[in-house]
Records
---
Amino acid sequence: MPAKNAPRFEAILFDFDGTLASLHIDFTRLRRKITALAEPFLGEEPEASTLPVLEWLDELAEEIRGFDHALGQEFHCRGRLVIQATELDAAREATLFPFTRPMLSELRASGIKTGILTRNSTAAVKVVFPDVAACCDCFMAREDAPKVKPDPAHALAVLERLGVAPGRALLVGDHPLDIQAARSAGLTSAAVVSGHSQHEALSAAGPDYLAADCMELLEMLRKRLLLP
C-alpha cells in the first residue's frame, strides 16, 4: 500500500464490467464457440489455452495465417464477430451499478479526471451505459486502444488524453488483469470485489487497495486524504 503521505490522485481510471456495471460474459461458453469456429480452419480442434479470449483468438489467427494468410484474416474477422455477439447478448442482461453515474459526476466536480477503459466493445458498453462518453473525461474501449489491457499502452493512452502522469493516477478493476495493467503502466492499483473475481484471487494479485466496490474504495481514499 502506498505511503500515507502520498500525493493526491489527479485521475482515476475505471474498468467497466464488474467495476461500474453488473455484466457477466460466459467465457467458458465463448471459448467453446471459438474452438468450434477454429476447428475447420485448422483441420483439428485447437489446443486449450490459458490466454484471455482476445489474445487466444489473435494467436489462432496467426497460426492459420502461417499456412494461408487470407484464411487467417477470415477466421480473425469471424472470431471477432462471435466475441462481439456474445458481448452484446451479455450487455442486454446487464445493469449499471446505481452508484456509477453519481460517483463519476462527483469526482469530476471535485476536479478529479475520470477515464473508463475496457476490453469490451464500444457497442456492448453503450447498450448498458448509452451516455458513457458524456459521463467521463475519456472512454476507451478495445477498438480505440493501441493494445488492450493488461498491455500498458491502453492505460497510458487514456492518461495521455487526460494529461495526467501515471504516478498521479489510480486504476480500478475487478480482475487480476486490471492490477497487472496498472502495475505495468506505473499506476497505483485498486481491486473491487463487485465483479466475478473472488476476494482471494484479487488479494493474491497484490493490489495497492482492495475494497468491496468503488464507493467503499473512494471512502477509503478520502480517509487517507488521497481524494478531495
---
Amino acid sequence: MTETLPTSYLPAERASAAELARQAGKLPRTEVSFEALDSLQSFCMVLNRFRQVVHINKSFLAFLKEYGMEGLVGKRPGDLFGCLHASQTPGGCGTTDFCRRCGSAVALGEALRGRDALKECRILSRRSGEDLDLRVSVHPFAYGGEEFILMSVDDISAEKRREALERLLFKDLLETAGSVRGLVDLLVEERAGDPLAQATAAAAGRLLERIFSQKELDAAERGELFLRITGASAAGLLSDVAAAAGEGEEANGKKIVVAGDRQDVELRTDKALVTRVLGHLVKNALEAERTGATITLTSRATQEGAAFIVRNPAVMPEEARLQVFQRSFSSKGPGRGLGTYGVRLFTEKYLHGKVSFTSGTGGTEFRAEIPAEI
C-alpha cells in the first residue's frame, strides 16, 4: 500500500500492484456468480476495500474497449468513466471536495460501512466531453477472509435527457393550449350561441385536459405526484364524473347513468385524482360501446371506504382481458392504452386503493376501491 495521502472525503490509499494481482487471481472466474455477471448488460465490477477494480464484466469491457484488462485492474470507478475530477488530486477518485456530492462516492462510502446503497450520479467525462448520468448500486461481500464490493452501473443519460425534454415540452404545451383556450373563451363571449364557437371551446378544453392528464401520469411514474387531500362524497364524485364525461366526444349517441341505489360515503382523499381515475374508466367504457349503449356508474360502501363501479354492456376480447393494466398494451393502436394503466398506478400507488375488473356474460365491470382516508 502507498503512503498516506490527503483526502477531502473517502480514503485515498490504494493497494499495491502485488496485492491487486493477488486479489484479482483470488476471485474465481469460473464460478456461476461470475458467469452471471458477464451475462448482464449492466456495467459490473468487483472492487477491493480501497475501491479499486479487481474484476470487471464483459459488458463494461466492451464499453471500455480502448483499455485491456491489465490496464483496468487497480483503477477506481471515476478513472474508468473518465471523471474530470478523478485526476485533480494525488488521491484520485473519491478524495476531492466534489466527491462529497457524487452519488457513486456516497454509495461506496455506504458499502465501506457494510451497507447496500443505490444512488444516482452525474459525471463530466474528460474522455467524451459529455455529462454522464449514472445509476449506481453497491453491495459489500466477503470472500476468502477479505472484503469486496460488488458495484453495478447503468447509464441513464438518455432517460434523464428525455425527462428534461418532457418537462419543457409539457410546460410549453400547457402554456400554448392555455392561451388558445383563453382566446376561444373570448370568442364564445363575443359570439354567444354560435355552435362553431362552442364546439371550438369544447375541443380546446379537451386538448388542455389531455395534456395535463399526460403530464400528471408522467409525474406519477417518476414518483413526483403530490396529493391534495380534501373532503369528498362518493355521490358527488360520481355526479361530477358523469357530467364531465357526457361532454366528451366519446359520449355522442350514448347514455351515462348514475344508479339511483348508489351509496354515499364521505372520503378524505385527493378529489381530483379520484375524479381522474373514474374519468378514465368511464372513457374506456364509452370507447368500447356502440351508439345507443348505456354506461352505468354506482358506488358501494365498504369496510375500508367506498367502491366505485363502472359498467358497460360490451364484453372484452380475450386478448384485451389478459393484458388490462399493462402499460404498453392498447386495443386502440400503438402509443395509446394508458387509461387502465393510469387507473392502476393512481389508485394503488397514490390513493392506496385497489382496482379490479370482470368481463363476461352481462358485460364489463371495473371496480375502484378507495379508502375512507389517506
---
Amino acid sequence: MNTPLAYFDEMHRSDDPWGFRSRWYEERKRNLLLAMLPARRYQRGWEVGCSTGELSARLAERCDRLLASDGSDAAVALAAHRLQAHANAEVMRLTQPEEWPPGRFDLIVFSEVGYFLGHDELRRTVARFAGSLAGSGVLIAGHWRRSFAEATMTGDEVHRILEASLPMQRCMSYRDADVVLQGWSVEPDSVAEKEGIV
C-alpha cells in the first residue's frame, strides 16, 4: 500500500473518520451503491477496505456470509465493534495485494481503496479479483473523484485501470461531480433480463 498504514490508524482514532456516519454525502453514496447491486441477496460477499464497517453493516443484510477486511488494526477494531450484531459477518486484517482471503465470492465491494494503492499494486489487486469471483459474481467499485493529498491517483484513474484490466463487462455505472460507482460481471444480463421482464 502506497499510503502508510499509520495514516489509516491515525484516522481511525476517531470513530467516524471522513464522516461516514454523519455526512449526507456518505449516506447517499452507500445507498447508491446498495441500489446498484444487481441481486437482492448474495451467498458470500467481501468488502475490501471496510474502515469503520458502516457499509459492511448494510452489506451484511444482503449477504449470507460477509468478509469485511482492512489493513489498519484500528479500522479492524472499529469494524468488529460495528458488526458485532451481525453473526454472518467476519472482520479480518488484510492488506492487498499481498494478503488475500481463500475461496470465491459472488460479491466483491472495492470502495474508496484504489487510490491509496500504487499503480502496480492496484493492477495486481485487480488481476486477483477476477480469480476470486464465483461464476456469476459481481465486482462493484466506488471512489471519490476529486484530488486529495493522500491519494496516489484520482478515482477516475482507478476506474480506468479497473475497466482496462478486468476480464469482465461493465454492467452498471453512476457518475456525478463527486463520486464514480461502477460494477463488472461475467454475466452482463440486466436485472430486468434476469427477471424475464424483457
---
Amino acid sequence: MVKLRYSLISSSMFLHLLFLVLLLVVQIRPLQAAATGSIVEFLPGFEGPLPFHLQTGYVGVGKEEEKQLFYYFIKSESEPEKDPLILWLTGGPGCSSFNGVVYEIGPLYYKQKEYNGSLPTLGLTPNSWTKVANIIFLEQPVNTGFSYATTPEAINVIDVDACKHVYEFLLKWLVDHPEFSSNSFYLGGDSYSGIILPRVVQLISDGIEAGNKPLINLKGYLLGNPLTFPEEKNFVMPFLLGMGIVPNDLYQSLVQNCKGEYREDFAPTNAQCTQDLEIVDELLWYINDQHVLDPLCGSETESPRPFPSAFRGRKRRSLEENSISPNCYGSLVDRHELSNKWANDPRVQKALHVRKGTVDHWARCRQKGIKKTYTFTFMDSISYHVNHSSKGYRSLIYSGDHDMGIPFQSTETWIKSLNYSIVDNWRQWTVNGQVAGYTRSYSNKMTFATVKGSRTRGS
C-alpha cells in the first residue's frame, strides 16, 4: 500500500511538473518559435550567383502563429557584424516589401531594355543601401506579398494589431539571428508606413523600458513621404499652384470659397467651392499623383489609398498595373508590371522558398483586396514623433518634391508644429557637386530633407 501510494504521488507530481513546463513553454512560445529562413544563392533572371547574402523566410505571429509573415533579409556588403540593422516597411497597406528590394533601396533592378516578353532579367543597383546596412524587408500586414494566413479568420487585421505583429516579428527574428541583436537598429518605411511605423517604434521603446528580451538597440527611424495626419490633402492645393497645374486665380478662389478644406470628407458649403473643386478634378484627370512629371499609365480605377487622389471621390486614372500603354514603356508602372510577371513565375517562387499553395497570385500591391480585411482605427502619428524625440531617438523625414499624393508642404508643416528649435537652417545638400535637394535639422535629433525632382514612394 505504501509503495502504491508513493507511486500515485510520484505520478501526480510528475503530471504537475509537466503541466508547469508546458505552461512555461506556452508563455514564452512567441520568442521560442524560430524564424524559418533559407539562403538564396541564385535567382531566375539574374546571371550567376548573387554577389550578396540573401535570406528569405517566414515568421509566425499572432496567438497561434496563424499569420505567417514573409521577409527578405540582405546582409550589408561592408561589415554586417557592425553595420546598422534596418527593418523596412513598404507602405500601402498591402504593398509587398519587394518594392523596397527592386524599386527603392535594395540591390536589384529590372533590365527593361532587355525585356522580350519572357522572364524579366535583373541587374545590380550601384547605390543600394545594403552596401552599408543590413536590411529586413517585411511583407506586412498578412495577405501582403507572400505573407499568408493559416485560417480564414486570420486574414483580418486591425491596424493596432498590425503594429504589434511587426514588433512580434522583430523579437522572434532576433531570437533566430542573435548575431544582430547588438547592431544599431532603425525602422524605415514610406507612405502609409508613416502611420504605423511610429507606433511600432513606440512598442519597441516601451519594450526596452520593460526589459523585454531580446533587447533591441534602437537608435531611430526614417520615413519617406510619410502619411502622418488626416489634413495632408489640404496641402495639395499649394503644391499644385507651385507646380503650375492650378493657376493663381483659381487657387485664390479655392482659398476664399473652400476656406482651405479640400479633403474627401469635407462637404462644401457653397456652390462656388464645389465648382472650383470640379475644375481641379478636370485638371488632374491625367496627372500621375505620385510624380507629376511621370506619365500616367494603367486602367481607370478608384485610387486604393486611404486618401483617394480625386478631391471629390470621382473615379480617375491611377497607377494600377492592369494594362500598359506603349507610351508608358520605361515608366514606373512598366517596371511594376515586370515584378508581377517575375514574382508569379513558379521558378522564382521556388528559388525564394515560397511555400507552395499559400498564395494564389502575387501582387505588388494588394490594396483593393486588403481594404476588405484591414481595419483603420487611427490616422494620426504626430504624438508618437513627439515621444520619440523626447527620448533622444534620431529621425530622418524626407520628401520627393514632385509627389502630389503626400506633398512635402504637409510634411514640413507638421514638423514645424512640433516647435523644435532649428539647429541647421534650410540649405542645399549635394551629390557629386550637384544640388540633390534641401534640408533642415532640428533639435531633438530630427532632420527633414527634400529630394529634388523625385518621388520617394516605390521609386
